[in-house]
Amino acid sequence: MITKRKVKRIAVERKSISMPEAITQKGFGNELPPRESLVEIYFDQKGLTAQAKAFYEFYSKANWCSPKGTPYRNWKLLASDWIFNYVQELKLRKRQRENMLAN
């Protein structure tokens, strides 16, 4: 009859794994209102530095809430919409200018 050998377990010291510290800096997308410097950095990365101040002032006056009074959740979504609308407006003005010159 074959029997299994029992292995003696040796006590091993376990290292405690520390949890990473939570990010305390605000403005990374979910916290509102963001710091103005973070908004400027975001718009600078998108190539529209001049629009950062207008964006921040507009939504600060609105208290970072929608027209119905619902608070916004993510300022970067607002900023991307702002940038998209601004670029579309520039394209429209350019087309209108070209049409005026063509006529």
Structural commentary:
The termini are far apart. The protein is 50% helix and 0% strand. The model has no long low-confidence stretch (mean pLDDT 84). The longest helix has 28 residues. The protein is elongated and about 105 Å long. It contains three helices and no strands. The chain is mainly alpha-helical and 103 residues long. The protein has a domain of 67 residues.
Note the main attributes of this structure:
103 residues; mainly alpha
* Percent of residues in beta strands: under 5%
Low-confidence stretches: none
Residue-averaged pLDDT: 84
Task: Tell how many strands the DSSP assignment holds.
Answer: 0
SSE order, as H and E? HHH
The end-to-end distance, rounded to whole angstroms, is 104 Å
Helical segment count: 3
Overall outline: elongated
Structural class: mainly alpha
Helix content class: 40-55%
Please compute the radius of gyration using only Cα atoms: 28 Å
Main pleated sheet: none
Task: State the gist of this model.
It is built from 3 helices and no strands.
Topology of this protein?
Blueprint: H1 36-45, H2 49-61, H3 75-102
